[in-house]
Amino acid sequence: MDLRRLPRVDRVVAAPALAPFRAALGTRTVTGIARAVIAGFREQVRAGQSAPPEAEVVEAVLGVARRRLGQRLEAVINATGVLLHTNLGRAPLPAASIERMLEVARGYCALEFDLELGARSRRGAAIDARIAELVGAGAALVVNNNAAAVLLALGALASGREVVVSRGELVEIGGGFRIPDVLQRSGARLVEVGTTNRTRVEDYVAAFSDRTAGVLRVHPSNFTMRGFAERPPLSRLATAAHDHGLTLIKDLGGGLVTDLPESIAAPARDEEPSVERCLRAGADLVCFSLDKLFGGPQGGVVVGTAELVDRLRGDPLARALRVGKSTLAALEPVVDAYARGDIESIPLHAMLRAPLGRLRERVEGWQSELGAAARHTRVVDSDATVGGGTLAGAVLPSVALEIASGSPDTLARELRMARPAIVGRVSGGALLLDARTILPAQDQAIVAALRQVLSE
Ligand SMILES: *Cc1c(COP(=O)(O)O)cnc(C)c1O
């Protein structure tokens, strides 16, 4: 065992091959990587292996440094056919949102300042009022995401008291957001009623007491129940809650404020209620995401009666959950688009509505630009999905380029390592690039990357 033969950290860090990584990551980071790599080799030497040559250690450091550099927030072309892919950042933003974000990020903005009066104003007041108007609510409050909206509503209105929820709605939304856990964190006590598949209004009413603050109704956004299943219509539940002086909170998730295209088949299409429909059915508060079917930046909203929303606004939690200026800058043009009825300027809705014939033309266009390399490809029908924990089970007809050249997993990796990165979908032994989620402005990048990987 000869630990002295291991190369010194400073010598490894100074290796010429690591120069670009010292410049990009900083010497401190590369030194940290070298220490960890050398420590690993030290264990191997202690276990009886011979000390590696310096070049081998440098090579190992290089590998880790390269991976570290590749882990930045890289822009991705979403070719999965999943429109609201949470792992890929959900909804792309309208061009107007991007311009406003740049404008506001470059310098200062009137975030909490009334330019006419020259006095302090409330952050988000204008956008809150416009969202309330858009959905026909008394008031609205924008927060960091829908999870925050639900936490705030429960924390402000039900802390130390009971909230009644159906056993069929104690769901996990994804990424560890579980309704029972959020309820507990808010300080409210969960009272479960009914069974997994059936809950009746009478089950709720039997659980009401002087400790009850309200009823929580959760939209089962990422799963569907078929067969012997029943839950009361929202309007019946609202009437029961109101008869007992209780508040009905609806966790809607999706945030639909316009019509869904006809190409989304029933029943999924009819099972996704709009925010307005929930309010009209009698929900006192509705919580929803801004980056799901609303098609905006990450954010969440609570809408409802002015009196309840005011109580939420005054809660200390509201300060911890508030949004930043770039979110508000991105959101305003989305609200403008809905107000004008210019739905197509919201990329999510443009993708949902893109005609099948137009998608086919684009994929055929890629194929013809590929020339000889096109022999590995085929234009195929595909099923796109909305995703993001919305419209569970709903498929949208789409068109994809199928690529069969060697192992689909290897090909998928090569396209992920291209820049911009392309994330496709492996299905039936081939790689698919689904046109519905690829923005028309990205067509050239798709062709360029395919030329590269298919010529190798
Ligand atoms: C998506 C979803 C959430 C979480 O929303 P985020 O904006 O991701 O925090 C909560 N509840 C329901 C019903 C959802 O669909």
Key phrases:
single chain, 456 residues, alpha/beta, 7-stranded mixed sheet, 4-stranded antiparallel sheet, 15 strands, binds pyridoxal-5'-phosphate
What does this structure look like?
It is a single chain. This protein is an alpha/beta fold and 456 residues long. The protein has a seven-stranded mixed β-sheet, sandwiched between helices. It has a four-stranded antiparallel β-sheet with strand order 11-12-15-14. A two-stranded parallel sheet has the order 1-13. The protein starts with 8 loop residues before the first helix and ends with a helix. The model has no long low-confidence stretch (mean pLDDT 94). Pyridoxal-5'-phosphate (PLP) binds next to helix 7 and strand 8.
Q: What is this structure's SSE topology?
A:
Layout: H1 9-13, H2 19-25, H3 27-46, H4 54-70, E1 76-78, H5 95-106, E2 113-114, E3 119-120, H6 125-135, E4 139-143, H7 146-158, E5 162-166, H8 179-185, E6 189-193, H9 201-207, E7 212-218, H10 234-243, E8 247-253, H11 268-271, H12 275-280, E9 285-289, E10 300-304, H13 306-313, H14 316-320, H15 325-340, H16 347-353, H17 356-370, E11 377-387, E12 390-403, H18 408-417, E13 421-423, E14 425-427, E15 430-434, H19 443-455
The protein binds pyridoxal-5'-phosphate.
Residues 145-147, 173, 177, 218-219, 221, 251, 253, 289, 300, 389 line the site of pyridoxal-5'-phosphate.
What does the main sheet amount to? Answer: 7 strands, mixed
Number of strands: 15
Bound molecule types: pyridoxal-5'-phosphate
Termini Cα gap: 45 Å
How much of the residues is beta strand, in percent?
15-25%
Please state the structural category.
alpha/beta
Shape: globular
Rg of Cα set: 27 Å
